[in-house]
Design a protein that fits this description.
This protein is α/β, with parallel strands linked by helices. The protein has 13 helices and 14 strands. Strand 11, helix 12 and strand 12 form a beta-alpha-beta unit.
């Protein structure tokens, strides 16, 4: 502690770290699965700090995640090399020179998804005595429901903390889930066109038409977006994160969502963060978003905040991005769940990503 090179962990991460130490007594390679927001960066930082005199390679999907790990470590270690997965392709001719006693892979569910997967595997094979540790919140790849712990870590799961467990043990706050039928009218219109063009019998068309008509009546009687926001978004929410499908969707939804919030009686300041802006610009926007102003700060994002970057103080999330991937859904939830604002987070699901299931089933 006096050296300033100790990384203190919360009890659940201390348990995970001890499980890693036990696991490495029996296996050279293994993985830890922990829900988004439970502090995987600090877990890796503790491992790095405790092995600071040995050569360590740290891999992650992007620089943002690597910076989070560096920040958690808190001091410079010459023996540690931080690399993105993509850099393995750009510098493939030099990968054979990478030597390590320990190889740490964050967000390992990406492992094997791209061409750099084989390059990372080459690094592991070139260091046959190195201990290999992977961390992820979502180890199951939706394509074929492949368990990446079995596929890449020999089935050696050292420790697991699922999202329901994190909620049960109050490690993460349980969110309030609000679902809305926003956008259902567009879907009903598409179904109507398909029905009009279909070649089914008149009787069958009449049966389907009745169901569509009932759905339209139910939808028109439901609360509109401003009413849902007024009723279910608490007045003390100060930071709202909005996920959009792409840049075109973001540009379209910024004025629409701002209109909903204004109609709901909220005074807002909108912010946008996306890949077409420079890293410096995005960082300046994030800093401005995190400041307190007495108004509702609304951050519109395309992908950039799904994985790796932790923005303090977010207490509500708005789903405007349709996705069939439960991995993306969990990561979006995680941006709210680990906010650290001290409030019970609110999840406004306006595209029914969580339709038909409890968040405890995720």
């Amino acid at each position: 502690l006096l050296s300033g090179r100790h990384v203190e962990l919360y009890p659940h991460n201390e348990a995970a770290y001890r499980a890693i130490m036990r696991g490495f007594k029996q296996h050279r390679i293994g993985a830890v699965v922990q829900a988004t927001g439970t502090g995987k960066s600090y877990l890796l930082a503790r491992y790095i700090a405790d092995h600071a005199k040995e050569k360590i390679l740290v891999f992650a999907p992007n620089i943002t995640i690597l910076d989070e790990i560096r920040k958690a470590v808190g001091f410079s270690i010459p023996q540690v090399t931080y690399r993105t997965f993509q850099s393995l392709i750009r510098n493939r001719e030099d990968n054979g020179l990478l030597r390590a006693d320990h190889i740490l892979i964050d967000e390992f569910h990406h492992f094997g998804a791209e061409i750099w997967g084989s390059a990372l595997q080459d690094v592991i094979e070139n260091n046959p005595c190195a201990y290999v540790l992977g961390t992820s919140a979502t180890p199951i790849r939706p394509e074929g429901m492949i368990d990446t712990v079995d596929l890449y870590f020999e089935g050696n799961l050292f420790y697991e903390l699922t999202l329901p467990q994190a909620w049960y043990y109050r490690i993460l706050p349980v969110p309030i889930l609000v679902q809305s039928a926003y956008g259902l009218d567009g879907e009903l219109n598409r179904l109507q066109k398909r029905l009009d063009r279909s070649g089914c019998s008149i009787r069958r068309k009449e049966q389907v038409q009745k169901k569509l008509d009932v759905a339209r009546v139910d939808f028109k009687g439901a609360l509109g977006a401003p009413e849902v926001i007024r009723k279910f978004l608490p007045k003390d929410v100060c930071k709202l994160l909005v996920f959009c499908r792409d840049l075109t969707d973001l540009k379209q939804m910024v004025p629409e969502v701002c209109g909903w919030l204004t109609q709901a009686g909220r005074v807002i300041i909108p912010f946008e963060i996306h890949h077409t802006q420079s890293e410096r610009t995005n960082n300046q926007i994030l800093k401005a978003f995190q400041k307190e102003s007495g108004k509702l700060h609304v951050l519109f994002s395309v992908n950039m905040l799904i994985e790796g970057l932790h923005v303090e103080g977010i207490d509500a999330v708005l789903f405007l991005r349709r996705t069939e991937s439960y991995i993306v859904t969990l990561q979006q939830l995680g941006r709210c769940l680990d906010a650290g604002s001290g409030k019970q987070p609110v999840v406004l699901d306006f595209v029914n990503n969580l339709s038909g299931k409890s968040v405890y089933d995720m």
